[in-house]
Each structure stands twice: as structure tokens, then as C-alpha cells.
Amino acid sequence: MRAQPKASHFINGRYVEDTAGAAIDCVYAASGEVIARLHEATDAIVEEALAAAKAAQPAWAALSGTERGRVLRRAADMIRAENRSLSELETMDTGKPLQETLVADATSGADALEYFGGLAGSLTGEHIPLPGGDWAYTIREALGVCVGIGAWNYPTQIACWKASPALACGNSMVFKPSETTPLSALRIAEILSEAGLPDGVFNVVQGRGAVGASLITDARVAKVSLTGSVPTGRKVYAAAAEGMRHVTMELGGKSPMVIFADADLDKAVSGAILGNFYSSGQVCSNGTRVYVERSVREAFVARLVERLKAGVVMGDPLDEAVTFGPMVSEAQMEIVLGYISQGIAEGAVVAHGGKRADRDGFFVEPTVFTGVTDDMTIAREEIFGPVLSVLDFDTEEEAIARSNDTVFGLAAGVFTQDFARAHRVVKAFEAGTCYINHYNAAPVEMPFGGSKLSGVGRENSKGAIENYSEMKAVYVGMGDVEAPF
Ligand SMILES: NC(=O)c1ccc[n+]([C@@H]2O[C@H](COP(=O)([O-])OP(=O)(O)OC[C@H]3O[C@@H](n4cnc5c(N)ncnc54)[C@H](O)[C@@H]3O)[C@@H](O)[C@H]2O)c1
Ligand SMILES: O=CCc1c[nH]cn1
User: Fold this and answer.
1) In the Enzyme Commission scheme, what number(s) does this protein have (predicted)?
2) Which fold has domain 256-436?
3) In this predicted complex, what is the ipTM?
4) Quick one: how far is CA 144 from the chain centroid?
5) How far is the centre of ligand 1, averaged over its atoms, from the C-alpha of 311 (Å)?
6) Which residue's CA is the nearest one to ligand 1's atom 5?
């Protein structure tokens, strides 16, 4: 199988190569086969991308919002028309089942382009009346050159979630995908270009952390948006702060899901599956600490295990009958297996799965632990794999306090038929993205992001516009100018 792109980088409206950059092998996670070889951006490539973005941005910002939005909406239509081939590419890039990528990746990217394309024409400042006939107005201005840096779990979605609000506001972008999944962002750049995006407005460069670091500190860069882990977020935020750059940080989590005894148990099991095993558990907002009210814990675990036994079909993720794919890489598989061993060593009980699957590729069985306590490593650290921990609780106050006892604050969910309780519980959650009787949906209309160590700023929704533009305020004096002397 081959998925070799035309070249490693996309700059100024065309593919660009520089083989002097270190090799990046793209590995199909279901087989271990190398399907493409790309090269890290050299200093010359980074310079070319930043220069292109800097040169292209003023003319792009000078278009009307309606004109910018038209390009984004055309790109959204093209992505939808090409959904199957983009989904196959995403599956090859990540190992996620085609059944999943067909509905959740390119389509989510298209949603973002369509939504922010639609908003672009409505972005304005405001008129502010002041005493004595004076007045003020505000001008919403683009920030300039933005840098986007992506994680490997949703490469297409991440590229589009960052590009769409940035470009709608009149910014340009240099995007660096994760070195583990370098392929899909290139095709998104090409589609944007074919949709009429002026050359240089959206550029893609490949590379590992050092390339990302070199982008952030460049004087031409006004904003950095990272999707990644908390340790990387700390470094990127600190580097951006040196130049007082704007940031959006979409980082990791260890989110709770609270299931009360009165919940519809089948819905709660579905929520737990969506919140732990979709994308083989490689979703930032996963609700991996599943607090179940003691009286229904056994019934919940029994139904969950039954659903996993009946529904998990492992195999080649390009086969649409497959529902469960491999970890993105051998390294990630080893990290997840390490956490499973640690869970067992610390006394948790494997109710389902618990080991590497007996097949080629980087597959880990969907794993359910019971008997988990809050102090265990598997209940405290982000695993980023298909490992669900069941914890018992007795009271609402206890469930809330234990849910919040974490440094993370990305997401949280509650399952109950008592809506007064549901709203009370989400009000008390220390998390940026909350769910009632659902889990992990991420529609573009809803803000997405974390509090505490899980991040800064929000993606999606009208709110993202605030993260990609700034207000210039203008005071207009209409009468005498009174001065003290
Ligand atoms: N909150 C969200 O929306 C969200 C979404 C997806 C993934 N994530 C998080 O991402 C993590 C998994 O992804 P990952 O392993 O790719 O994360 P990572 O932090 O290892 O890497 C993320 C990106 O940062 C780059 N990078 C690494 N060091 C850098 C540096 N010093 N300067 C600039 N860039 C640097 C990497 O090359 C990569 O492109 C998990 O923690 C997950 O929760 C968060
Ligand atoms: O990985 C995090 C982003 C996300 C959550 N649900 C869908 N995408």
C-alpha cells in the first residue's frame, strides 16, 4: 500500500520538497508497513512558509468577509464531495476504522469550513455612544500570521478546526501536522487552494517538535494554536509568551463520567463506549474515569462487557465492517500496554481485554478495569488508549468532588433522568466541555476546549472568532477638547 504525497510541504499554493530534512516515515498502524516517506522542514522551508504567509495575509484580510467565506464554503463542498478518498487517507494516516473516518473526520473539517465561512461576512466591530455626543467604534482586525500545530488523533479535523476561524478572520496560517500523521493536512491545503484560496494563506510544513518550536518564536508570528499534550502545551505557551503572542491550547485530559442509578443504563453504556473506545480510545475528551453509583455498578459492567464482546470487530481499518482499529503507532501501543500492566500491578481487576491483540499491527484490546481507586495511576494519568476505569460512588457530593480531583479539566459527563440533578452536577464540574446523557459529540456550533491544565481558549462556535481576531478601539471627539491647563 502506498500513500506517498507529491511532496512533503505545501507552501504558497504548491507542493515543495527539500530532501535535506530528516526523514519522516508514515506507517500504516494495522500492518507496520511504511506507506510514505516525507522530510522534516529545513530552516529554508520554514523561512519559505513564514515569508509566504506574511506576504499573503494583508491582501486576504483586505477582502470582504463574504469573499473570504465563499472560499471556505467552496472548500467545504469539495471536501464533502471527496469524503471517501479523504477518509481512506485519514485511515491510512491514523489507523482509525474507515467506518469512523467516513463520518467523523473530513466531514467535521467540512463543517468547520462551512460554519466559519458562513460567519465571515458577519464579523464586525461596534458603535459605542458616549456622553456629550462623542462616540467610539471598534474595528475587528485579523491578528496576522498564525501557527497551527496538530496532534495525531484527528489530523484532518485539527487542521480544519484551526484554519477555518483563522482564515475567516483574515489571518494566514502555517500549519505543522503531527509527525506521526503527516498526510491529510497536505490534501486539505491543496483543496483550499483549488477552492480559490490565494497562494500563501494556508501553508503546511512537516516536522517534529523542533520544527514546531522554530515556528512559534519567529517575529512574524502573532498567534499559536496547539493541539497536543500538557507537557508540550507548557513549552509552547511559554515560548509564545516571550513574544506576547496569542495562544489557543487544546491539551490532554482525564475526564470523568458520572452514572447515577436512575440513568437509562443502555444510553450510559453507549456514552461510555463513545467516551472510551471510539478511535481506539485516542480522543482527548474521553471520559475514562467512569463513576457508577454502587447499586447499578454490576449491571453497568455486565452490559458494557456484553456490548464490547458483540460489537468490537478488529481487522484492517480500511474494511468498512471493522469497528475497532489499532493504536496510531507502536510507541503509543507500548505506552497503553504499560498503563494496563500498571493497573494490574496496583490491584485493579480486568473485566474485559487487558492485553495486546493477537494479530499484526498495533492493536490493544478494549479494556475495562473494575475495582479502581482514585489514587491508582490508571485513574490519574491520561492513557490515550482504550482503557476504561470503573469507580463506585454513593452520593452526588462525593461523585462531584472525586470528578474534580484532577489537574485536568477538559470534559465531563453525567447520565441521569433527573434533569435538576444533571444541571446541578454540570454546574459543579470543573471542565470546559460537559455532556448530559451523551458523550464526546463535538459539533462545530458548540465551544470545545478545556479548563485547568487542559487548555486555554476554545475552538469552534462563534467564540473562536475572539481567539483569532482583536479589537481596535477608536474614540471620536465631536465637540470641544477640554484640558486642565
Ligand atoms: N484538547 C484537544 O482538543 C485535544 C485534541 C486532540 C489531542 N489532544 C491531546 O494531544 C495529545 C496526543 O497528541 P500528541 O502525542 O501528538 O501530542 P504531543 O504533545 O506529543 O505533540 C503535539 C504536537 O506538538 C508538536 N511539538 C512537540 N514538541 C513541541 C515543541 N517544543 N514546540 C512546538 N511543537 C511541539 C508535535 O510535533 C506535534 O505536532 C494528548 O495529550 C491529547 O489529549 C488534545
Ligand atoms: O480529540 C479531541 C477532539 C474531539 C472530540 N471529539 C471529537 N473530536
Assistant:
1) 1.2.1.8
2) Aldehyde Dehydrogenase; Chain A, domain 2 (3.40.309)
3) 0.97
4) 22
5) 30
6) 284
